[in-house]
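Service request form, structural biology core

Requester: graduate student, group of Dr. S.
Request type: structure prediction, single chain
Budget code: on file
Notes: please return the result as structure tokens.

Sequence provided:
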Amino acid sequence: MSGTTVADLPVPESPRRSRGRPSPEQAAALRESFLAAALTSFLDKGYAATSIEAIARDAGVAKITIYRQFDNKEALFREVVHRAVGHARDTMQATLVRRAEDERQVLLDLVERMYLGATEPKTLALLRLVIAEATRFPELAKSLYAENSYVLSPVVDYLAEAHRTGKLHVPSPELAAVQLSTLAFGGVRFFISKPLAGREERRAWAEGIVDLVMRGWAPQAAGAAGEGDGRSD
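Core staff response, request fulfilled:
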């Protein structure tokens, strides 16, 4: 996952229950409550030791409230993962829109955001949980890794627009987005045990990545594609 932290996810208070069918607002609050409780339980206890009953108890809702929306624990876990990466995607989108006039600054902010998200303890705990359960529950790992294209879609859209307007030369924005995230997250793993100390170190690390990719993504001058093809005046 990329771009945000699991800690950024809202943790709503357990909603007050009322008799009869809940209103749409109450139903949404109940859903937020048990999804937050599910995330906490999965991280604290692991997938195997977590139960729908315990999640319902922690969230202050009835089991049937959860089972009306999710057939089983695996389906609930998939939604917890999807919810986390959805916040990552939203944060990436906000980062890309905020400084749209300056491509280098946009990418610097994005790589730094990736670093902060990937080294946040709860994010690491969720990734480790998926890895730990991958042998017994391979579908759980797939449910996380299948989200990559969804998380990176704002980056793909941004690079495609930059290419279309001539600000960057990125003929394959999907591949470029994967390459950028690979550089960012591949480097992050070396800092998990000893994180970068402060904003200056993070910025220097991000600058190295962004300067590297921007040399390859620099706009091509008119006629540059024909250079070296043997033609002469």
